What we know:
alpha/beta
Amino acid sequence: MEILELPIEFEFNGQRNTIYPSLIVWNNELTLVDTGYINFLPLIENEIIKRGYEMKYLKNIIITHYDDDHIGSLHDFKKKYPWINIIASEIESSYISGEMKSERLVQAEELLENMPPEEIAFGKWFIKQLKELKPIAIDQKVHDGDMILHNECRVVATPGHTSGHISLYFPKLNSVITGDAAANENHELVIANPHFCLNMDNAKHSLRKIQNLQADTYYCYHGGKITL
């Protein structure tokens, strides 16, 4: 088994940005962790194919949490590759499937009410982005401590950024896929997007939790991997 990061470059507000979904390779079986923004499917496909893999071997998609830059292309992946098994925490599943209004949308609507005039346009745009996310059912709901992917991966509950956020620990590789529980900032693990965290105390605890795993490598969605 190995973990590959897939750097996806894009432009936002005139600036170049990069996110780093992860690809887990186990024999001929591929598992993608998070799917980028809406319409990012071709970008992610291209990165996978560039590495010599065929999309027909994509078996699973794991979603760390409900945010538009993590689930944006999930619906497109499931539509194009209907055999894919979609995995998420039980808490996040209710938002991804549309059974419950997402925490992020509730937060965005509340923030809009008190936004400075110069930020209102962005706030409205962000709410529109969230409302355009198409709901999709989760095939496998997981909890803290569950072993998945042939018992090679342990689910680690890392709430804070969202209530049901999960990270992934691979004991044999001594590696962690952090999602937004941590970001790589100047080669240090820090809380990702703290101003968007739904619970800062939980986010701090979750960061310590994955740091205490003392992994060799942390694969951060924002900032890329860190090898310690």
